[in-house]
Amino acid sequence: QVQLGESGGGLVQTGGSLRLSCAASGGTFSSYAMGWFRQAPGKEREFVAGISLSVGNTAYGESVKGRFTISRDNAKKTVYLQMNSLKPEDTAVYYCAATLAARSWIGPTAYAYKYWGQGTQVTVSS
Fold first, then answer.
1. How far apart (Å, rounded) are the C-alpha atoms in residues 48 and 40?
2. What is the mean pLDDT of residues 101-125?
């Protein structure tokens, strides 16, 4: 079983950048596909980005393509989300998620992930 803890959220102006980190403990990190999701008040949880076990396989939600980058460091047991050109509509609680998966699998749906962090708030001011 893996435990996840997000950090790096905060308040940023429109056009700014933030880097979120998700540190894992327990389990074999390199066996888990990782994802970032977000949820704004009154809205459903939304897929932001995912990365497979094998570095280089990534996927992004349409609203963040070209602005956000997901990466992972298996040695540090950490997955990152670099967020650039932030917009007010990016304001949400961002969650890290993990699940045991096949080598090239990436999951864009929340139900596919078994383990979740507590979330970190990102607020983008206009």
1. 12
2. 94
Averaged confidence pLDDT in the chain: 95
CA distance 40 to 122: 10
Residues 6+ apart with CB under 8 A from 68: 48, 49, 60, 81, 82, 83, 84
Q: Which two tokens stand for residue 6?
A: 């997000």
Report the alpha-carbon distance of residue 39 to residue 71 in Å, rounded: 21
pLDDT at 102: 85
Extract the tokens encoding 39. Answer: 């949820």
Taking the C-alpha atoms of residue 100 and residue 113, their distance in angstroms, rounded to an integer, is 8
Closest listed residue to residue 49, CA positions, set 117, 106, 115, 114: 106
Q: Which structure tokens are listed for 55?
A: 């570095």
Structure tokens at 43: 């809205």
Q: pLDDT digit string (tens) for 60-94?
A: 999 999 999 999 999 999 999 999 999 999 999 99
